Amino acid sequence: MVPTMTSKTGLTLPAVGFGTYQLNGERGVTAIVEALSNGYRLLDSAFRYENEGAVGRAVRQSDVDRAEVIVTSKLPGSRHRYDEALDAVTESVDRTGLDQLDLYLIHWPNPNVGLYLQAWRALIAARDRGLVRAIGVCNFLPEHLIRLEQETGELPAVNQIELHPYFPQADALAFHREKGILTEAWSPLGRGTDLLGEPVIGEIARVHGVSAAQAVLGWHVARGSIPLPKAATPARQRENLQIFDVGLSDEEIARISALGRPDGRLAGQDPAGYEEF
Ligand SMILES: NC(=O)c1ccc[n+]([C@@H]2O[C@H](COP(=O)([O-])OP(=O)(O)OC[C@H]3O[C@@H](n4cnc5c(N)ncnc54)[C@H](OP(=O)(O)O)[C@@H]3O)[C@@H](O)[C@H]2O)c1
184, 160 in Cβ contact below 8 A? Predict the structure, then answer.
């Protein structure tokens, strides 16, 4: 049984989700249908992944009740202007073939362009019109979140950020907790880097009789972030759900967090300057 977490805005999410980046076309549909049948109820897509259609088709094909699934997509940086953002949300919903999306996020703040406030107002309107059930952001720094709150009185339900042992983001996690924002972790397994081969993770995994991936996902669970591992095969999908009884000690959590480094971002994508359209 997957536990849940609830934001201050009242959105309840499963404590683990399924990343769908690079799961496209027929192969993507098959993998996502399998993920649903394996027990995932939170799907993470984006306009930019070009797989909203595959995600929607998988949800429609699956035996799982639609009402149980949280389908997420994201607004690209090229559509931050208010009207264009609203159109983009409508187009995302249409591509999925579903009546409504459950969660819609601004993908990057692009602060140097400076239009994320317009995008946020458009997401508020999209939610109020019923296109999406809940709204949030990705890659927002505390200063961006504070600006949303000050200008609109509304904080996101979710901030999805890069978070893994090489980049543990303790300050962001604490800030989100204080504000009642749920933290989703992207690239939670370090996206194919050497992370899962780190000796300290292997050692801790052996002590608990779990795999390296499960030890890392157990670290996420213990720290209160919602990991979104992507896995193409059913075996790994199932493995990545068995993470709620790992039971890491505080000392083990600290040893894994000690892998963190200031430049630990996988691709140097610091939201203060990085821009994505
Ligand atoms: N908001 C953003 O800006 C942003 C940015 C990046 C990613 N994301 C989201 O976050 C999701 C996850 O991030 P990610 O795809 O970059 O990386 P990830 O989930 O950290 O890593 C995925 C890699 O780990 C492998 N893997 C999965 N389970 C494993 C296991 N149990 N043992 C060993 N290897 C395993 C996968 O292999 P196989 O697939 O071959 O099994 C794949 O190569 C994305 O799919 C996307 O939804 C969001």
Answer: yes
Task: Give the three-class secondary structure for 198.
Answer: coil
Measured over the CA atoms of residue 79, residue 84, residue 88 and residue 91, the dihedral's sign is negative
Catalytic residues: 49
Q: How many CA atoms lie within 13 A of 159 on its CB side?
A: 29
Q: Considering the entire predicted model, what is its pTM?
A: 0.98
Q: What is the residue with the minimal CA distance to atom 44 of ligand 1?
A: 19
Helices (H), the chain: 25-38, 52-61, 82-96, 116-128, 142-152, 170-179, 199-208, 212-223, 234-239, 250-257
* pLDDT in the model for residue 1: 85
Ligand 1 atom nearest 21 alpha carbon: 45
- Give the distance (Å) from ligand 1 centre to CA of residue 22: 9
Decide: helix, strand or coil at residue 184.
strand
Structure-token pair, residue 70:
């949280």
Instruction: Determine the Cα–Cα distance for residues 6 and 170; give it in Å rounded to an integer.
Output: 20
Q: Write out pLDDT tens, residues 63-84.
A: 999 999 999 999 999 999 999 9
Is 107's pLDDT higher than 90? Answer: yes
Q: Going by CA atoms, what residue is nearest to atom 10 of ligand 1?
A: 186
Ligand 1 is surrounded, with C-beta below 6 A, by 19-21, 44, 107, 138-139, 160, 186-192, 196, 211, 213, 228-233, 236, 239-240
Atom of ligand 1 nearest to the CA of 212: 32
